[in-house]
Amino acid sequence: xxxxxxxxxxxxxxxxxxxxxxxxxxxxxxxxxxxxxxxxxxxxxxxxxxxxxxxxxxxxxxxxxxxxxxxxxxxxxxxxxxxxxxxxxxxxxxxxxxxxxxxxxxxxxxxxxxxxxxxxxxxxxxxxxxxxxxxxxxxxxxxxxxxxxxxxxxxxxxxxxxxxxxxxxxxxxxxxxxxxxxxxxxxxxxxxxxxxxxxxxxxxxxxxxxxxxxxxxxxxxxxxxxxxxxxxxxxxxxxxxxxxxxxxxxxxxxxxxxxxxxxxxxxxxxxxxxxxxxxxxxxxxxxxxxxxxxxxxxxxxxxxxxxxxxxxxxxxxxxxxxxxxxxxxxxxxxxxxxxxxxxxxxxxxxxxxxxxxxxxxxxxxxxxxxxxxxxxxxxxxxxxxxxxxxxxxxxxxxxxx
Length: 401
Prior knowledge:
mainly alpha, 401 residues, 20 helices, Ankyrin_rpt-contain_sf, coiled coil
Protein backbone atom coordinates (compact mmCIF):
# COMPACT_ATOMS: atom_id res chain seq x y z
CA UNK A 1 0.00 0.00 0.00
CA UNK A 2 1.00 3.67 -0.32
CA UNK A 3 1.37 4.05 3.43
CA UNK A 4 3.73 1.05 3.55
CA UNK A 5 5.86 2.60 0.80
CA UNK A 6 5.92 5.91 2.68
CA UNK A 7 7.10 4.11 5.82
CA UNK A 8 10.12 2.74 3.96
CA UNK A 9 11.17 6.22 2.87
CA UNK A 10 12.73 9.01 4.89
CA UNK A 11 10.27 11.82 4.10
CA UNK A 12 8.39 12.29 7.37
CA UNK A 13 6.50 15.30 5.92
CA UNK A 14 4.94 13.08 3.24
CA UNK A 15 4.05 10.50 5.86
CA UNK A 16 2.49 13.19 8.06
CA UNK A 17 0.27 14.38 5.19
CA UNK A 18 -0.88 10.84 4.48
CA UNK A 19 -1.63 10.15 8.12
CA UNK A 20 -3.52 13.41 8.52
CA UNK A 21 -5.65 12.41 5.52
CA UNK A 22 -6.60 9.19 7.32
CA UNK A 23 -4.46 6.82 5.24
CA UNK A 24 -2.91 5.14 8.25
CA UNK A 25 -6.23 4.03 9.72
CA UNK A 26 -7.29 1.82 6.80
CA UNK A 27 -6.42 -1.86 6.43
CA UNK A 28 -4.35 -2.94 3.45
CA UNK A 29 -4.04 -5.82 1.00
CA UNK A 30 -3.76 -8.74 3.44
CA UNK A 31 -5.83 -7.12 6.17
CA UNK A 32 -2.77 -5.48 7.71
CA UNK A 33 -2.87 -2.10 9.42
CA UNK A 34 -0.25 0.59 9.85
CA UNK A 35 0.81 -1.10 13.10
CA UNK A 36 1.45 -4.38 11.28
CA UNK A 37 3.82 -2.61 8.85
CA UNK A 38 5.53 -0.31 11.33
CA UNK A 39 8.07 -2.77 12.86
CA UNK A 40 9.82 -3.18 9.49
CA UNK A 41 10.72 0.51 9.66
CA UNK A 42 11.40 0.89 13.37
CA UNK A 43 13.34 -2.30 14.21
CA UNK A 44 16.72 -2.38 12.52
CA UNK A 45 18.15 -5.43 10.77
CA UNK A 46 21.60 -3.86 10.23
CA UNK A 47 23.60 -0.87 11.43
CA UNK A 48 21.84 2.48 10.93
CA UNK A 49 23.55 5.73 10.04
CA UNK A 50 22.60 9.05 11.65
CA UNK A 51 20.01 9.84 8.98
CA UNK A 52 18.27 6.49 9.42
CA UNK A 53 18.19 6.96 13.20
CA UNK A 54 16.64 10.41 12.81
CA UNK A 55 14.16 9.21 10.19
CA UNK A 56 12.92 6.37 12.41
CA UNK A 57 12.53 8.76 15.34
CA UNK A 58 10.61 11.23 13.15
CA UNK A 59 8.26 8.53 11.88
CA UNK A 60 7.53 7.35 15.39
CA UNK A 61 6.85 10.91 16.55
CA UNK A 62 4.66 11.60 13.50
CA UNK A 63 2.47 8.56 14.13
CA UNK A 64 2.04 9.43 17.78
CA UNK A 65 1.01 12.98 16.82
CA UNK A 66 -1.27 12.21 13.86
CA UNK A 67 -3.11 8.98 14.64
CA UNK A 68 -5.85 9.22 17.31
CA UNK A 69 -5.47 6.96 20.34
CA UNK A 70 -8.78 5.21 19.61
CA UNK A 71 -7.61 4.40 16.09
CA UNK A 72 -4.34 2.98 17.44
CA UNK A 73 -6.22 0.75 19.86
CA UNK A 74 -8.49 -0.44 17.07
CA UNK A 75 -5.50 -1.29 14.89
CA UNK A 76 -3.75 -3.12 17.74
CA UNK A 77 -6.66 -5.57 17.91
CA UNK A 78 -7.06 -5.99 14.13
CA UNK A 79 -6.17 -9.38 12.62
CA UNK A 80 -4.70 -9.85 9.16
CA UNK A 81 -5.63 -12.81 6.96
CA UNK A 82 -3.68 -15.43 8.98
CA UNK A 83 -5.03 -14.21 12.34
CA UNK A 84 -1.95 -12.18 13.29
CA UNK A 85 -2.29 -8.95 15.25
CA UNK A 86 0.38 -6.19 15.19
CA UNK A 87 2.05 -7.57 18.33
CA UNK A 88 2.61 -10.90 16.57
CA UNK A 89 3.95 -9.14 13.46
CA UNK A 90 6.36 -7.06 15.52
CA UNK A 91 7.83 -10.13 17.19
CA UNK A 92 8.11 -12.03 13.91
CA UNK A 93 10.02 -9.13 12.34
CA UNK A 94 12.26 -8.91 15.40
CA UNK A 95 13.02 -12.62 15.10
CA UNK A 96 14.31 -12.03 11.57
CA UNK A 97 16.20 -8.91 12.64
CA UNK A 98 17.92 -10.43 15.66
CA UNK A 99 18.92 -13.49 13.64
CA UNK A 100 20.65 -11.23 11.10
CA UNK A 101 22.29 -9.10 13.79
CA UNK A 102 23.42 -12.16 15.75
CA UNK A 103 24.94 -13.69 12.61
CA UNK A 104 26.85 -10.48 11.88
CA UNK A 105 28.20 -10.33 15.44
CA UNK A 106 29.13 -14.02 15.46
CA UNK A 107 30.97 -13.63 12.14
CA UNK A 108 33.07 -10.80 13.59
CA UNK A 109 33.73 -12.81 16.74
CA UNK A 110 34.83 -15.80 14.63
CA UNK A 111 37.27 -13.57 12.74
CA UNK A 112 38.76 -12.39 16.04
CA UNK A 113 39.10 -15.96 17.33
CA UNK A 114 40.84 -16.97 14.12
CA UNK A 115 43.28 -14.08 14.41
CA UNK A 116 43.97 -14.91 18.06
CA UNK A 117 44.72 -18.50 17.04
CA UNK A 118 47.06 -17.29 14.30
CA UNK A 119 48.81 -15.02 16.82
CA UNK A 120 49.23 -17.92 19.22
CA UNK A 121 50.77 -20.08 16.47
CA UNK A 122 53.10 -17.28 15.36
CA UNK A 123 54.17 -16.66 18.97
CA UNK A 124 54.98 -20.34 19.45
CA UNK A 125 57.14 -20.22 16.33
CA UNK A 126 58.76 -16.88 17.31
CA UNK A 127 57.71 -15.27 14.00
CA UNK A 128 58.06 -11.65 15.07
CA UNK A 129 57.07 -10.06 11.74
CA UNK A 130 53.96 -12.21 11.44
CA UNK A 131 53.07 -11.49 15.07
CA UNK A 132 53.25 -7.76 14.43
CA UNK A 133 51.02 -8.03 11.36
CA UNK A 134 48.43 -10.09 13.19
CA UNK A 135 48.37 -7.66 16.13
CA UNK A 136 47.68 -4.81 13.70
CA UNK A 137 44.85 -6.87 12.16
CA UNK A 138 43.38 -7.55 15.60
CA UNK A 139 43.52 -3.87 16.48
CA UNK A 140 41.73 -3.02 13.23
CA UNK A 141 39.04 -5.69 13.76
CA UNK A 142 38.21 -4.90 17.39
CA UNK A 143 36.08 -1.81 16.59
CA UNK A 144 34.14 -3.84 14.02
CA UNK A 145 33.26 -6.45 16.64
CA UNK A 146 32.32 -3.77 19.15
CA UNK A 147 30.11 -2.10 16.54
CA UNK A 148 28.38 -5.41 15.77
CA UNK A 149 27.70 -5.98 19.48
CA UNK A 150 26.33 -2.43 19.81
CA UNK A 151 24.10 -2.84 16.75
CA UNK A 152 22.66 -6.09 18.11
CA UNK A 153 21.85 -4.38 21.38
CA UNK A 154 20.34 -1.42 19.51
CA UNK A 155 18.05 -3.85 17.66
CA UNK A 156 16.82 -5.20 21.00
CA UNK A 157 16.23 -1.66 22.21
CA UNK A 158 14.24 -0.85 19.05
CA UNK A 159 12.07 -3.89 19.66
CA UNK A 160 11.49 -3.21 23.34
CA UNK A 161 10.70 0.45 22.72
CA UNK A 162 8.14 -0.41 20.03
CA UNK A 163 6.47 -3.13 22.10
CA UNK A 164 6.36 -0.88 25.15
CA UNK A 165 4.60 1.79 23.08
CA UNK A 166 2.28 -0.80 21.52
CA UNK A 167 1.27 -1.98 25.01
CA UNK A 168 1.05 1.37 26.79
CA UNK A 169 -0.44 3.56 24.05
CA UNK A 170 -2.23 1.16 21.69
CA UNK A 171 -3.35 -1.23 24.43
CA UNK A 172 -1.87 -4.39 22.89
CA UNK A 173 -2.69 -7.57 24.83
CA UNK A 174 0.40 -9.62 25.73
CA UNK A 175 -1.65 -12.82 25.92
CA UNK A 176 -3.41 -12.47 22.57
CA UNK A 177 -3.40 -15.67 20.52
CA UNK A 178 -3.28 -15.96 16.74
CA UNK A 179 -6.91 -15.86 15.69
CA UNK A 180 -9.10 -17.60 13.17
CA UNK A 181 -8.60 -17.42 9.42
CA UNK A 182 -10.98 -15.23 7.42
CA UNK A 183 -12.84 -18.41 6.57
CA UNK A 184 -12.18 -22.12 7.36
CA UNK A 185 -9.60 -23.62 5.02
CA UNK A 186 -11.60 -26.82 4.64
CA UNK A 187 -15.28 -27.79 4.76
CA UNK A 188 -16.26 -28.70 8.28
CA UNK A 189 -19.33 -30.67 7.26
CA UNK A 190 -17.71 -32.53 4.34
CA UNK A 191 -13.93 -32.33 4.68
CA UNK A 192 -12.00 -32.80 1.46
CA UNK A 193 -8.78 -34.74 2.02
CA UNK A 194 -7.05 -32.94 -0.87
CA UNK A 195 -7.49 -29.45 0.57
CA UNK A 196 -4.58 -27.86 2.40
CA UNK A 197 -4.25 -24.70 4.52
CA UNK A 198 -3.16 -21.48 2.77
CA UNK A 199 0.58 -21.12 2.28
CA UNK A 200 2.23 -19.16 5.06
CA UNK A 201 4.42 -16.16 4.15
CA UNK A 202 8.21 -16.57 4.62
CA UNK A 203 8.23 -14.87 8.03
CA UNK A 204 5.86 -17.56 9.31
CA UNK A 205 7.05 -20.61 7.41
CA UNK A 206 9.56 -21.69 10.07
CA UNK A 207 7.46 -20.94 13.13
CA UNK A 208 5.48 -23.09 15.54
CA UNK A 209 4.40 -26.00 13.32
CA UNK A 210 6.19 -26.10 9.99
CA UNK A 211 4.91 -29.69 9.78
CA UNK A 212 1.61 -30.21 11.56
CA UNK A 213 -0.40 -33.39 12.24
CA UNK A 214 -3.52 -34.08 10.20
CA UNK A 215 -6.78 -34.01 12.12
CA UNK A 216 -7.04 -37.80 12.27
CA UNK A 217 -3.73 -37.91 14.20
CA UNK A 218 -4.90 -35.56 16.96
CA UNK A 219 -5.47 -38.07 19.73
CA UNK A 220 -5.71 -36.06 22.93
CA UNK A 221 -9.10 -34.53 23.71
CA UNK A 222 -7.48 -31.83 25.85
CA UNK A 223 -6.21 -29.83 22.84
CA UNK A 224 -8.38 -27.52 20.70
CA UNK A 225 -7.41 -29.30 17.46
CA UNK A 226 -9.23 -32.42 18.62
CA UNK A 227 -12.41 -30.67 17.46
CA UNK A 228 -12.60 -30.86 13.68
CA UNK A 229 -14.53 -27.60 13.60
CA UNK A 230 -11.77 -25.79 15.50
CA UNK A 231 -8.99 -27.49 13.50
CA UNK A 232 -10.23 -26.08 10.19
CA UNK A 233 -10.93 -22.57 11.51
CA UNK A 234 -7.27 -21.87 12.33
CA UNK A 235 -4.13 -22.21 10.31
CA UNK A 236 -2.56 -25.40 11.75
CA UNK A 237 0.91 -23.86 11.51
CA UNK A 238 0.28 -20.96 13.89
CA UNK A 239 -3.21 -21.39 15.34
CA UNK A 240 -3.56 -20.02 18.90
CA UNK A 241 0.16 -19.18 19.18
CA UNK A 242 0.92 -16.34 21.60
CA UNK A 243 3.48 -13.50 21.46
CA UNK A 244 5.67 -15.31 24.00
CA UNK A 245 5.73 -18.44 21.83
CA UNK A 246 6.87 -16.48 18.80
CA UNK A 247 9.52 -14.65 20.82
CA UNK A 248 10.94 -17.90 22.22
CA UNK A 249 11.77 -18.91 18.67
CA UNK A 250 14.09 -15.91 18.35
CA UNK A 251 16.51 -17.68 20.70
CA UNK A 252 17.30 -14.25 22.17
CA UNK A 253 17.43 -14.75 25.92
CA UNK A 254 17.65 -11.04 26.89
CA UNK A 255 14.48 -10.24 24.94
CA UNK A 256 12.56 -13.24 26.29
CA UNK A 257 13.64 -12.33 29.84
CA UNK A 258 12.45 -8.75 29.30
CA UNK A 259 9.09 -9.98 27.96
CA UNK A 260 8.64 -12.28 30.95
CA UNK A 261 9.19 -9.28 33.22
CA UNK A 262 6.51 -7.33 31.35
CA UNK A 263 4.10 -10.24 31.77
CA UNK A 264 4.90 -10.36 35.48
CA UNK A 265 4.25 -6.62 35.91
CA UNK A 266 0.81 -7.02 34.38
CA UNK A 267 -0.08 -10.16 36.35
CA UNK A 268 -0.17 -12.25 33.16
CA UNK A 269 2.84 -14.52 33.60
CA UNK A 270 1.17 -17.73 34.73
CA UNK A 271 -1.54 -17.45 32.08
CA UNK A 272 1.13 -16.96 29.41
CA UNK A 273 3.12 -19.99 30.60
CA UNK A 274 0.05 -22.28 30.63
CA UNK A 275 -1.22 -21.19 27.21
CA UNK A 276 -0.90 -23.67 24.37
CA UNK A 277 -1.13 -23.81 20.59
CA UNK A 278 -3.82 -25.55 18.59
CA UNK A 279 -1.91 -28.80 19.23
CA UNK A 280 -1.09 -28.27 22.90
CA UNK A 281 2.44 -26.84 22.69
CA UNK A 282 3.26 -24.51 25.60
CA UNK A 283 6.12 -21.98 25.71
CA UNK A 284 8.09 -24.53 27.76
CA UNK A 285 7.54 -27.28 25.17
CA UNK A 286 8.63 -24.91 22.40
CA UNK A 287 11.79 -24.04 24.34
CA UNK A 288 12.54 -27.76 24.72
CA UNK A 289 12.05 -28.24 20.97
CA UNK A 290 14.07 -25.13 20.02
CA UNK A 291 16.11 -25.81 16.88
CA UNK A 292 17.98 -22.51 16.62
CA UNK A 293 19.90 -20.57 19.25
CA UNK A 294 19.09 -22.14 22.65
CA UNK A 295 17.73 -19.99 25.46
CA UNK A 296 19.74 -19.46 28.63
CA UNK A 297 19.36 -21.74 31.64
CA UNK A 298 17.70 -18.98 33.66
CA UNK A 299 15.11 -18.21 30.98
CA UNK A 300 14.20 -21.88 30.43
CA UNK A 301 13.78 -22.31 34.20
CA UNK A 302 11.37 -19.34 34.28
CA UNK A 303 9.26 -20.93 31.53
CA UNK A 304 8.96 -24.17 33.50
CA UNK A 305 5.92 -23.55 35.68
CA UNK A 306 3.88 -26.43 37.14
CA UNK A 307 0.94 -25.27 35.02
CA UNK A 308 3.01 -25.58 31.85
CA UNK A 309 4.31 -29.01 32.90
CA UNK A 310 0.75 -30.34 33.22
CA UNK A 311 -0.33 -29.43 29.67
CA UNK A 312 -0.50 -32.35 27.23
CA UNK A 313 -0.07 -31.99 23.49
CA UNK A 314 -2.10 -33.67 20.75
CA UNK A 315 -0.44 -37.09 21.27
CA UNK A 316 -0.62 -36.94 25.05
CA UNK A 317 3.03 -36.06 25.63
CA UNK A 318 4.10 -33.38 28.09
CA UNK A 319 7.16 -31.13 28.01
CA UNK A 320 8.94 -33.75 30.13
CA UNK A 321 8.35 -36.42 27.48
CA UNK A 322 9.95 -34.11 24.90
CA UNK A 323 12.89 -33.23 27.15
CA UNK A 324 13.69 -36.81 28.13
CA UNK A 325 13.85 -37.69 24.43
CA UNK A 326 16.51 -35.00 23.96
CA UNK A 327 14.37 -32.51 22.06
CA UNK A 328 14.66 -32.20 18.26
CA UNK A 329 18.29 -33.42 18.21
CA UNK A 330 17.69 -36.50 20.39
CA UNK A 331 20.76 -37.23 22.52
CA UNK A 332 23.25 -37.74 19.71
CA UNK A 333 26.22 -35.45 19.24
CA UNK A 334 27.52 -32.55 21.28
CA UNK A 335 25.44 -29.39 20.91
CA UNK A 336 27.75 -27.08 22.84
CA UNK A 337 31.47 -26.83 23.39
CA UNK A 338 31.95 -25.80 26.99
CA UNK A 339 29.05 -24.82 29.22
CA UNK A 340 25.92 -26.87 29.71
CA UNK A 341 24.28 -28.90 27.01
CA UNK A 342 20.94 -27.13 26.29
CA UNK A 343 19.20 -30.51 26.23
CA UNK A 344 20.27 -31.16 29.82
CA UNK A 345 19.16 -27.63 30.77
CA UNK A 346 15.73 -28.24 29.23
CA UNK A 347 15.44 -31.64 30.91
CA UNK A 348 16.25 -30.31 34.36
CA UNK A 349 13.72 -27.48 34.01
CA UNK A 350 10.97 -29.80 32.74
CA UNK A 351 11.71 -32.35 35.45
CA UNK A 352 11.54 -29.76 38.24
CA UNK A 353 8.23 -28.43 36.92
CA UNK A 354 6.77 -31.93 36.51
CA UNK A 355 7.66 -32.79 40.10
CA UNK A 356 5.87 -29.67 41.31
CA UNK A 357 2.85 -30.43 39.13
CA UNK A 358 2.69 -34.11 40.09
CA UNK A 359 2.87 -35.17 36.46
CA UNK A 360 6.02 -37.31 36.45
CA UNK A 361 4.06 -40.47 35.68
CA UNK A 362 1.67 -39.07 33.05
CA UNK A 363 1.44 -41.41 30.07
CA UNK A 364 1.06 -40.31 26.47
CA UNK A 365 -1.56 -41.64 24.07
CA UNK A 366 0.53 -44.80 23.58
CA UNK A 367 0.76 -45.41 27.33
CA UNK A 368 4.40 -44.36 27.64
CA UNK A 369 5.64 -42.25 30.52
CA UNK A 370 8.63 -39.92 30.41
CA UNK A 371 10.78 -42.68 31.93
CA UNK A 372 10.04 -44.83 28.89
CA UNK A 373 11.14 -41.98 26.62
CA UNK A 374 14.35 -41.57 28.60
CA UNK A 375 15.26 -45.26 28.52
CA UNK A 376 14.47 -45.44 24.81
CA UNK A 377 16.59 -42.40 23.92
CA UNK A 378 19.61 -42.90 21.67
CA UNK A 379 22.97 -41.23 22.07
CA UNK A 380 25.82 -41.14 24.57
CA UNK A 381 24.36 -38.33 26.67
CA UNK A 382 21.17 -40.16 27.67
CA UNK A 383 22.66 -42.73 30.11
CA UNK A 384 24.65 -39.98 31.82
CA UNK A 385 21.44 -38.01 32.17
CA UNK A 386 19.67 -40.90 33.86
CA UNK A 387 22.52 -41.26 36.35
CA UNK A 388 22.37 -37.55 37.15
CA UNK A 389 18.64 -37.46 37.89
CA UNK A 390 17.71 -40.92 39.24
CA UNK A 391 15.23 -39.81 41.89
CA UNK A 392 13.14 -37.85 39.46
CA UNK A 393 12.40 -40.62 36.98
CA UNK A 394 12.92 -43.97 38.62
CA UNK A 395 9.91 -43.48 40.84
CA UNK A 396 7.62 -43.54 37.81
CA UNK A 397 5.98 -46.35 35.89
CA UNK A 398 7.72 -47.50 32.73
CA UNK A 399 4.39 -47.60 30.91
CA UNK A 400 0.74 -47.94 31.77
CA UNK A 401 0.04 -50.29 28.85
